[in-house]
Design brief:
- The chain is α/β, with parallel strands linked by helices.
- The chain has a domain of about 80 residues: Nucleotidyltransferase, domain 5 (2-Layer Sandwich).
- It has 3 helices and 7 strands, in the order H-E-E-E-E-H-E-H-E-E.
- A 5-stranded mixed sheet has the order 4-3-2-5-6. Strands 1-7 form a two-stranded parallel ribbon.
- The longest helix is centred in the N-terminal third of the chain and has 24 residues.
Length: about 130
């Protein structure tokens, strides 16, 4: 009687370890590359747009070319701005804050105002634009 050779059983499982490694490497690459892609897509000449929607309950902060800061048309300094914004945001956390900056305003002035907004609890401030006619 002749013995039958047994054929080795095929492995029915799929090894996903290499796939997982590749996915994690791609995830890390995308996480590192995303900020660079976002920064390169920013256009600096913003002040004009075809449509703009301004809500009556929005908080408007205006920065003039000389660095003067206004909160809803009232001139204010950065400390007072922080105090008033903190109170407004506590009352209505969903209130939108829009920064209207003159085209010739110093970048440093905008950063100082945005820092005050962050410390006051404002999550996503918007930048104001001029509507195209």
């Amino acid at each position: 009687m002749k013995r039958r050779e047994r054929k080795p059983k095929l492995m029915a499982e799929i090894n996903i370890t290499p796939f997982t490694d590749v996915v994690l490497v791609l995830l890390i690459i995308f996480m590192i590359a995303t900020p660079f892609i976002y920064q390169s897509s920013l256009k600096i000449q913003l002040p004009k747009a075809s449509a703009s929607e301004e809500n009556a309950r929005d908080i408007i902060i205006t920065i003039k070319a000389g660095g003067d800061v206004f909160l809803d048309d009232a001139k204010t300094d950065l400390d007072t701005l922080k105090y008033k914004l903190t109170a407004m945001i506590r009352r209505k956390p969903e209130t939108a804050v829009i920064i209207n900056g003159d085209k010739n305003v110093r970048y440093d002035s905008v950063i100082q105002v945005m820092d005050v907004l962050r410390k006051s609890g404002v999550k996503n401030p918007g930048l104001g634009i001029e509507v195209k006619q």
